[in-house]
């Protein structure tokens, strides 16, 4: 479900996917909130979230990778006791999990929950989640005078990408202005959601985003 990409630390990536055959991936407000909790649990240990937008049939993340690999606890082996409680029979073991694996777990676990909710089976997301960095910027070409600047500092690519992400619900005519859409970081950048999981301070620092 996640197309492998060679992520590197201290780099920014635009990660995105959509529903299989462009079908819906969010059906209720709780689905959006559940997905955000998944992002917090599986994405944030690897990176800082600079911006995001969750749309009815797709999502966008702009991330700054800190740790391509993290150490996590493996699953415990349990032995039921007489009181019907489970007790561990082996100590927890540490294992390495990559950002590719974490995103895959996030999407698969979300898919299982939605399939159960909607009484459906099969893939929810397109087969390949895409991750694009500044080296493959769709906005600037190597002949552009600011191309090298964008690759080094992300000022152009990252800021343009973040504006594009925030504008999704407006382009889709779901809302008239980006801050009216609850499931994006636009409200955090406007100072309307201090509890958002997006790191607005770092995004402004890295991207010179106003």
Describe this structure as you would to a colleague.
The chain is an alpha+beta fold and 210 residues long. It has helices at 29-43, 99-118, 147-153, 155-166, 168-171, 186-189, 200-207, and strands at residues 12-18, 47-55, 58-65, 69-73, 78-80, 86-88, 94-98, 130-133. It has a four-stranded antiparallel beta sheet. Strands 4-7 form a two-stranded antiparallel ribbon. Helix 1 runs antiparallel to helix 2 (99-118) and helix 3 packs across helix 4 (155-166). The longest helix has 20 residues, at 99-118.
What's the tally of helices? Answer: 7
- What is the CATH level 1 assignment? Alpha Beta
What proportion of the residues is helical, as a percent range? Answer: 25-40%
Number of domains: 1
Unreliable sequence segments: 76-84
Gross CATH architecture: 2-Layer Sandwich
Q: Structural class from helices and strands?
A: alpha+beta
**Physical arrangement of strands within the biggest beta sheet:** 2-3-1-8
Give the total of beta strands. Answer: 8
CATH homolog superfamily: Transposase IS200-like
Inertia-based shape: globular
What is the N-to-C succession of helices and strands?
EHEEEEEEHEHHHHH
Largest sheet: 4 strands, antiparallel
């Amino acid at each position: 479900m996640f197309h492998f990409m060679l992520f590197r630390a201290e780099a920014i990536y635009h990660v995105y996917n959509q529903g299989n055959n462009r079908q819906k991936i969010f059906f209720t407000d709780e689905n959006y909130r559940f997905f955000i909790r998944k992002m917090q649990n599986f994405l944030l240990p690897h990176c800082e979230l600079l911006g995001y937008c969750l749309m009815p049939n797709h999502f966008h993340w702009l991330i700054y990778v800190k740790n391509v690999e993290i150490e996590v606890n493996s699953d415990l082996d349990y032995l039921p006791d007489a009181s019907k409680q489970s007790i561990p029979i082996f100590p927890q073991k540490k294992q390495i999990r990559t950002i590719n694996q974490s995103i895959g777990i996030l999407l698969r676990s979300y898919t299982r929950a939605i399939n159960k909710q909607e009484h459906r089976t099969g893939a929810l997301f397109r087969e390949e989640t895409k991750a694009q960095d500044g080296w493959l910027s769709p906005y600037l070409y190597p002949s552009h005078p600011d191309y090298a600047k964008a690759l080094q500092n992300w000022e152009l690519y990252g800021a343009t990408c973040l504006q594009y992400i925030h504008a999704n619900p407006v382009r889709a005519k779901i809302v008239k202005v980006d801050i009216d859409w609850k499931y994006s970081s636009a409200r955090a950048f406007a100072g309307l959601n201090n509890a958002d999981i997006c790191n607005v301070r770092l995004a402004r620092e890295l991207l010179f985003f106003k």
